[in-house]
Amino acid sequence: MRAGIAARLDAIRAHVAARLENGRVRECHGDLHARNIVRIDGRLVAFDCMEFEPAFRWIDTAEEAAFLLADLDARGYPLHAHAFLTGFLAQSGDYGACRVLDLYKFHHALVRAKVAALTADNSPQPCALFDSYVAVARRALEPKRHDRIRHWRRVCMRAR
Predict the structure, then answer these.
(1) What is d(CA 3, CA 83) in angstroms, rounded to the nearest whole number?
(2) Spatial separation of the C-alpha atoms in residues 43 and 54, rounded to whole Å
(3) What is the rounded CA–CA span in Å between residue 144 and residue 12?
(4) CA 95 to CA 91: how far, in whole Å?
(5) Alpha-carbon span 11 to 6, nearest angstrom
């Protein structure tokens, strides 16, 4: 995966810098995955953010979204991931995030794979989750066949 990520980083370096300049790096949750979301009074609420370390929660908003997307994908909820991404893009209007989502998804899938490996205790469930996160990371590096920005803009326009 090293060669794939190196090529991807070179290809989108300018987009990442532009996102910082355009105010897309903000104080976010920093650790947004499915186990840090709960339903309260019919609403989904994120909890357990990285309040102890500002460096972990000041991130690109697309990176925050990618963290949850990677987690939902690895756990076998692609329709939930699709619905979340559609809502995120429609609410934020940040279709430029599509240029960096795969990079961030790759990164966070590997972070979650490491957590799964560290907590495995020879249990089959964390081992399977590890494999699933690694598969998500690999898919994030695969070349895409369409222009993601135009695709998601069309999806969001249909959702309105």
Answers:
(1) 31
(2) 26
(3) 14
(4) 10
(5) 9
* Cα dihedral value 18, 21, 27, 30, nearest 10: 20
Tokens of 144: 């895409």
Give the span between the Cα atoms of 138 and 43, in whole angstroms.
33
Give the tens place of pLDDT for each residue, 52-71. 677 778 889 999 999 999 99
CA distances from 95 to 3, 18, 77, 157 (A): 27, 13, 22, 12
pTM for this predicted structure:
0.80
Rounded to whole angstroms, the Cα distance separating 107 from 111 reads 6
Give the separation between CA 70 and CA 144, rounded to whole angstroms: 17
Q: Quick: pLDDT tens for 20-47.
A: 999 999 988 877 888 888 999 999 888 8
DSSP state of 34: G
